[in-house]
Amino acid sequence: MVLNVIWLVFFFGAFIACIVQWLAFGDTGIFNKAILGAFDMSKTAFEIALGLTGILSLWLGILKIGEKAGAVQILAKIVQPLFSRLFPQIPKGHPVVGTMLMNISANMLGLDNAATPMGLQAMKQLQELNPNEDKTVASDSQIMFLVLNASGLTLIPVSIMTYRAQLGAANPSDVFLPLLLSTFFSTIAGIFALSFFQKIKLKDPVTVAWLGGISACVIAIMFYFSHLTAEAIGTTSLFISGVVLFGIIVAFLGLACYKKVQAYEAFVEGAKEGFNTAVMIIPNLVAILVGVAVFRASGAMDLVMNGISALLGFIGVGNDVVPALPTALMKPLSGSGARGMMIDAMKNLGPDSFAGRLSCMFQGAADTTFYIIAVYFGSVGVKKTRHAVTCALIADAVGVIAAITIAYIFFPPIH
């Protein structure tokens, strides 16, 4: 229902924006521009899904080896105390817990290509556990997992620091600590929002201990990386990423040998699922991305930005924030679009300007919510998302508010 409303808003809003530009400025080509944007994005959506096929086959094959060898079950046992409280519908010791853990870990390391196949496999396993008679209705566990993904907790935002370095920032890593704080608040907000809708007791001693321990680890990692140079951060993060990914593969293969599992056959069995999953994604991905493209090409996004600018001025918020807002508004809709707006802000205003730094924080504070919803729910045929979009957008909003507040603390604008 929510996605349907948002999708219609994209198209009707875009059509109204086209009419306004035609009547006000005589721009007769704006309608064609919107249609061309839709055509281009539908092609892009297909290419994205097609590009995922090989990666999906690789990681679903690796996961199948881990599942048959028992590695996924081992991971599940480690995090069972916390996950049994956040995901009460999942049976104790179910392998989906290990799959979710690997997905979340890959996201925290910024390994998008590795995280997506693991996430899709976890969503498929959660669909098998879906207690609803109507399997097109999202379960509580699926919603919790999706919001944890959409909140975008990333410990090592290498790509953002790389763009800052390329654009001449004096210290490309100066946004590292503020960005991590922003994305951390976003994730915590998502968990709290879900605890309200799903009646999860966060005051449980085990939950408090786990979340407190995770918070302490995040703070320690922030402290460590905040003392490294941009070059050292990039080198260290690449090393950690490589060790984690290659370590998972070797560990799964080693355990398969120990358990006398036919690793090659298991890999092929899992890899076959990659193509079918990619095909399932295409219609949902086209629907969401085409809606975003039309909304942007029609100029509706610019109208929204002008309205927000006027509103901020009315309530006394300085215009320092406004040039960075396109990144914040685009991030839930399109990762590449938000990245382009972040780069545009740094190019026009400088990477070390308040808006330039803030746009980087917006880019890293959350994930592409609607893309994740389209891909993850679309891969298992879920159409009724219940409170998933609401909680994910709450996490996004808190991430934006936290980013603005933290930016004023770390980088106070000079007038």
SSE arrangement:
Layout: H1 2-25, H2 30-69, H3 71-86, H4 96-108, H5 112-128, H6 140-150, H7 158-166, H8 176-197, H9 205-226, H10 230-258, H11 263-297, H12 300-314, H13 325-330, H14 335-349, H15 354-365, H16 369-378, H17 388-410
Describe the structure.
The chain has 415 residues and is mainly α. The chain has 17 helices and no strands. It starts with a helix and ends in a 5-residue tail after the last helix. The model has no long low-confidence stretch (mean pLDDT 82).
TL;DR of this structure?
With 415 residues, this protein is mainly α.
Keywords, please?
mainly alpha, globular
Separate helix tally: 17
* Helical coverage, percent range: over 70%
Count of distinct strands? 0
- Terminal CA distance: 46 Å
Query: Per the principal axes of the C-alpha atoms, what is the gross shape?
Result: globular
**Strand-residue proportion:** under 5%
List segments where confidence is low: pLDDT < 50 over at least 5 consecutive residues: none
> Structural class of the helices, strands and pairings?
mainly alpha
The chain-level mean pLDDT equals 82
What is the H/E string? HHHHHHHHHHHHHHHHH
The major β-sheet equals:
none
| Structural Rg | 22 Å
